[in-house]
Amino acid sequence: MLRSPLKTLCVLSLAVAGCRSGGSHTGPTTQPPLVQMPLMTSVSFVSPAVAQALYDRVKPSLVAVQYTFNGELGRSEIIGPGVVVGADGLVMLSMSIVPSQIPNGQMIDFKIIVPGDTETEIEATFEGRDERSNVAFVRTKEKQDWPAIEFIEAPQQIGEAVLSVGLLPKSAGYHPYITQSTVSANLRGPVPQTLVSADGLAMLGSPVFNAKGQAIGFVNELQDQAVVLNDPRSPLGAITNPPRLYVPSRDFLQSLQDPPKAGESMKLPWLGVSQISGVNKEVTDFLHLKNEPAVQVGAVIPGFAAEKAGLKAGDIIVKFNGETLERGDEPEEAALILLRKVRRLKVGSTVSFTLIKPNAVASPLTEVTMTLEERPMQANMATRFYAEDLGFTAREMVFEDRYDRRLKPEFKGVIIALVKPSSSAASGHLQTNDIVTQINRTPITDLAQFKKLYEEFRKSSQKEAVVLEILRGVNTQVIRIEPPQ
């Protein structure tokens, strides 16, 4: 992304402690006794001295992570905040800095920037994304001896103080800053989150601490918040509009204990269902579930774990591994919580589901067991080929491409992943998500063959049009792409 230095920047100050006191009031003896509120005998904010000590201890563990997005339409430098979680040089960052929409091969030249008066850049390796917790990791190529932040599980109660330490944008030299607020609510959902008071938190990617100075959470992806440290569109976004939600440590401790490794694809399990939804209260009452959460299976994918175990569309899941399903704040969240639990297991794990079968409400509950299989490869891992002269990118097909279009597993072709604006491909009306099945009347078998045929034709027939047969929706079309003259 383009850089735009700031001319001025507000200097943040540490929060100031405040004392509160409380009392009680006894009403007339003729009135019912009032419920007595506990007397507030402690402050809800920590002192400036404690905040300063935490700030000094944490700031050496905050770094910036930089990489180059090397896309077909150009190169962009992206910089986001990171937290040192391994003394040897392991750094955790929010997955929103390296979103899964970016193909792995287009993220290059990773570096870790150590802020300070003698700012330094250290070459790093991208270890990978961890979709179990929506975080990612990079590691320095050479081992370091850094102060790492150790996160612990310590749920906070309403009214307790929390502090977070983050980095200001690039234009402010990545200067660390601290915020202080109080817990307002602990929210349920597929991703547990804690809401804090209007004082807010430091920007995305910042660690969160309790009043004892223990790391108890992480500010992860939020809507309408600044994501990167070099975004000219919102250079002060996280300061003028601070985030108010953080993810408790329990949600990502698994990722810290078992992080992804460079060069290895993280194997995630899945059920083999394409639709699953929460059941509302009216339905659970009808099923005599006494307000217990439940989810309904909408579609089962043939040939995968769920079908092999006997799971059917319409089945209602009421227990997972013998335990009642977790409830979210909305019925739909029960399904998302279940899927997230499954994703955190190992491929090959055996799990059980307790079901109510459709049209058999009065029958005993049915239990099925299944062995979790590996989720098929995702589009961001697929091999790509950029036809620069005509302005389009093709990639290999993945399972989801065929399933979403109800195509047979043996269907051959390549997916158009990008069409450059104002290019020959755009003029020829090629579109993203078209499936190319033939090139110059030769059927496509895979991306390697498509690339070979394309390059050979363009080399021998530079002025002739490329003719592609494509599948768009349910219709087959023939497209001629004239080369630039």
Describe the structure.
By secondary structure, the chain is an alpha+beta fold. The protein folds into 3 domains: 222 residues, Beta Barrel (Thrombin, subunit H); 106 residues, Pdz3 Domain (Roll); 103 residues, Pdz3 Domain, CATH 2.30.42.10. The chain is 14% helix and 33% strand. The protein has 9 helices and 27 strands. The protein starts with 47 loop residues before the first helix and ends with a strand. The N terminus is likely disordered.
Euclidean distance between termini CA atoms: 32 Å
The assigned structural class equals alpha+beta
Uncertain stretches of 5 or more adjacent residues: 1-43
**Sheet of most strands:** 7 strands, antiparallel
Number of domain modules? 3
> In the CATH hierarchy, what is the class of the largest domain?
Mainly Beta
Helix content: 10-25%
User: How much strand content do the residues show?
Assistant: 25-35%
> Rounded to an integer, what's the Rg over CA atoms?
27 Å
Shape: flat
Counting DSSP E segments of at least 2 residues, the number of strands comes to: 27
Keywords:
seven-stranded antiparallel beta sheet, Pdz3 Domain, six-stranded antiparallel beta barrel, alpha+beta, 485 residues, Thrombin, subunit H, single chain
Write the layout of secondary structure elements.
Elements: H1 48-58, E1 62-71, E2 74-86, E3 90-94, E4 107-114, E5 120-130, E6 135-140, E7 161-167, E8 176-187, E9 193-196, E10 207-210, E11 215-218, H2 237-240, E12 245-248, H3 253-257, E13 269-270, E14 273-278, H4 281-286, E15 295-300, H5 305-309, E16 316-320, E17 323-324, H6 331-343, E18 350-356, E19 366-371, E20 373-374, E21 384-387, E22 392-396, H7 399-404, E23 414-419, H8 424-427, E24 435-439, E25 442-443, H9 447-460, E26 466-472, E27 475-481
Antiparallel strand pairs: 1-2, 1-4, 2-3, 3-6, 4-5, 5-6, 7-8, 7-10, 8-9, 9-12, 10-11, 11-12, 13-20, 14-15, 15-16, 16-17, 16-18, 18-19, 21-22, 22-23, 23-24, 24-25, 24-26, 26-27
